[in-house]
């Protein structure tokens, strides 16, 4: 579109210079007319961006982009889904997992997204789920911002084309996380959650260091080099293990991971595995932010066996990260009060549950009487209890009567829904 407009400007200049010559004037007019028609076709084929939505609505209409999300609130899954607009999420690494996670959060209506990456889009990235061929050569942050703003213009997007493992990049990363312009009254840092979607240990350690220093909750994710497994992990400074508490075996053995890369050899990449890991990452992000369900402390994924292992990872008291040790001390100081508050909340919720049966009636007409309460009998009763059974056999109805010791009989009545037989008891 930009190139076409520049050519039109050049044609206009040519038209001005050829005004005295009528033959040149007609040729220039026809050329301009052709350009305008071409630009009109381009404008019609361009994607139409919707206008911004001021408030989320639960109204069920085709023109409401949030109706299916707000249904979670109507169904009782989430108390207040519209709160998602208050949250800021930082995504470090806009690759196979990070770009898809960014798209999912954008479609969910997250309030603000911060995107970090230093790489450019290449044709080798086209096996992923997000980038398009016409974006080759653009920085991943610019390409992501372009696509995400078209998907949902309500989301505030901030992109940073930088390498967080450099001194300057790390300082900019820290400064952007501290920025509270989106929510000035927010406690702690300026973001609610950091998602690490990088593919190397050095970058993960940079995210780990920043989050430990800022006391920032974050989630780490990764996909194996053979592209058939992956994982996500929740890291809360002081409460759970940080990334330095239990380093990978390769790093713990003293091998520099950069020496493992060979010329002409690259890691495998499957969009299916990356899509699954990104989905697990965003699902747990939503559960953490909107406070529903149970957030997994660690969740693995093995696509070969469809195996999803989970585990808890406690902090290492001898961690090599000084900021992690400081957060552990702070957590131990507040832990007793937090545990007491959790117990009090559970007790209050237990008291609020009404006593009695969960269902007062049921489609099977089954009723149960507490056997701890003695069976009351009429004073004129003989004390004998009879059980009458009526059943259908060969299209004939049969009735039997059996006397039962009243002391041992429990008052239970059962009616079979198909009415093939009927069991009752009487006190005679």
Helices and strands, with pairings:
Blueprint: H1 2-17, H2 22-45, H3 67-74, E1 88-92, H4 98-108, E2 112-117, H5 140-151, E3 156-161, H6 167-178, E4 193-196, H7 201-214, E5 218-223, E6 229-235, H8 249-252, H9 271-290, E7 298-302, H10 322-352, E8 367-368, E9 385-393, E10 396-404, E11 412-415, E12 421-427
Parallel strand pairs: 1-2, 1-4, 2-3, 4-5
Antiparallel strand pairs: 5-6, 6-7, 8-11, 9-10, 9-12, 11-12
Helix pairs in contact: 1-2, 4-9
Features:
428 residues; alpha/beta; Rossmann fold; 5-stranded antiparallel sheet; 10 helices; extended
Overview of the molecule:
The protein has 428 residues and is an alpha/beta fold. The protein has three domains: 2-45; 87-246 and 265-330, 3-Layer(aba) Sandwich (Rossmann fold), CATH 3.40.50; 367-427, no CATH class. The chain contains ten helices and twelve strands. The strands form two sheets. The protein has a seven-stranded mixed β-sheet with strand order 3-2-1-4-5-6-7, with helices on both faces. α4 (98-108) crosses α9 (271-290). The longest helix has 31 residues, at 322-352. The chain starts with a helix and ends with a strand. Residues 377-381 and 407-428 have low confidence and may be disordered. It comes from Populus deltoides (Eastern poplar). InterPro entries: D-isomer_DH_CS1, ThiF/MoeB/HesA, ThiF_NAD_FAD-bd, Ubiquitin-activating_enz. This is Ubiquitin-like modifier-activating enzyme 5.
